[in-house]
Amino acid sequence: MKSPRSMPVEVAEGLAIQALSYIAGEPERLERFLSVTGLGPDQIRAAAGESGFLAGVLAYIASDETLASEFTSDAGCGPADITRAHIALGGEPWEREIP
Question: Of 10, 30, 40, 71, which has the most beta carbons under 10 Å away?
């Protein structure tokens, strides 16, 4: 049975793609993301099709309080939506709530 707080996978994927687009929308954000992940710009499209990548994008967003706040403001969602989407995509629950 689904938890009332659960998020459908399709919605979670959409939020993660929106997060990836947000990251890619500014060169400095994208440069940092690529540096942290070890991906090259030409590898993002292939990586996006790999299991767990989209959950990783959400984990990356959540790992930076400022980035998470800016993204949720831009996306019109809340921090709990990032957490729910991360879990829906197979990510492990975090021990702390993101700001």
Answer: 71
Q: Which domain holds residue 38?
A: 9-88
pLDDT tens readout for residues 47-81: 888 778 999 999 999 999 999 999 999 999 999 99
Average pLDDT over all residues of the chain: 88
Residue 94 domain flag: no
**Residue 4 covered by a domain:** no
Alpha-carbon distance of 84 to 36, in angstroms, equals 23
Distances (CA, A) of 1 to 4, 5, 6, 31: 9, 11, 10, 41
Look at residue 99 and tell me if it is in a domain: no
